[in-house]
Amino acid sequence: MAHTEVPRSIVSVQLLTRLATEQGMAIGDCLTDSRISPETLADTHAEILPSQELQVVRNIVGRIGHLPALGLAAGARYHLSVYGVWGFALATSPTPRALADIAMRYLDLSFAFIRFSVEIENGVPSVHMDDDSVPAEVRQFLLERDLAAMVNALTEVMPGKLPFRSIELKCPEPAYATQFQELCGIRPRFGRPANIVEMDPEYLDTPLPQGNELVSRACEDYCRRLMARKHRRIGLSARVRDRLLQAPNRMPGIDELASELHMAPRSLRRKLQEEGTSYRALTEEVRQTLAEELLKTAKLKLDEIAERLGYAESASFIHAFQRWTGMSPGAYRNRLPR
Predict the structure, then answer these.
(1) Domains of the chain
(2) What is the mean pLDDT of the chain?
(3) SS3 116
(4) How far apart are CA 112 and CA 91, in angstroms?
(5) Hey, is 47 helix, strand or coil?
(6) What pLDDT, on a 0 to 100 scale, did the predictor assign at position 165?
(7) Which helix (H) or strand (E) is 255 found in, with range?
(8) What is the C-alpha to C-alpha distance for residues 112 and 116, in angstroms, rounded to an integer?
(9) Tens-place pLDDT, residues 51-100
(10) How confident is the model at residue 227 (pLDDT cuts 50, 70, 90)?
(11) N or C: which end of the chain has fewer CB within 10 A?
């Protein structure tokens, strides 16, 4: 799976089972082999793993997946309010550009199985929806669900005409293609090489009606801490992350780390990939987290921060920070509350 096994709220499964029972499916059938009990399902504060939700999706698609546009109907139930603080951070983002940055950085706080990414080419932004790692038997359902959920989010932050210029989807054109058009405002082109939603260039920096930079920044900070807590509870990647945090200025290479863990480097790479990450991604995550914390709390010069994070020179650190956040360390520090 492309997604990591980051614990997530039970709310998504509650929405899915509600949809399924409305179509005559029993709760017990929805939960088969998911290791989710009816008592857990009823607990709004419960957390489950993505693999458990995926099993619920398999059960539902296996039983009622023949219903036209079932995924679109599911996605229509996902409003920003169901995502908790991540949804509130999106709702209060000052611009769509800021919204996209928060959405991508903390995507594991959503319920998405499709892996979203935002690219800008020749000034034109596009959302890429990678479904290659989603099991084939549920791929159409989850593509529809996560696309509809994205459209819901954009509609809620900026009511009115959607900013889509074109939509390309890999799946064959279904009999209910007009429902995609009703949802998105334009008719997608089906049977394309990739799932890509292209947007109007001027949309990115349009002020959002509910935008509040101070509130959004506070929510983003909470998202960062929430993500850190969730990641600390995940298998081998948690052990690797803890080891990297011990000496961020002298991070071991993957061969050295594999030896410490009594594993072959190939096995370490494979197991991290199974958890939806990689050694490089973990080193980047640790360095970014520490960099942001040092910029917030320590009155250190950039070359001192660079040294603490294992960079030979501050220029390398500045380049990496810009890649992580889209801004320089100086700009990041200047936007912090005084």
Answers:
(1) 8-203 (3.90.1520), 234-334 (1.10.10.60)
(2) 91
(3) strand
(4) 17
(5) strand
(6) 96
(7) helix 254-260
(8) 8
(9) 899 999 999 999 999 999 999 999 999 999 999 999 999 999 999 999 99
(10) confident
(11) C
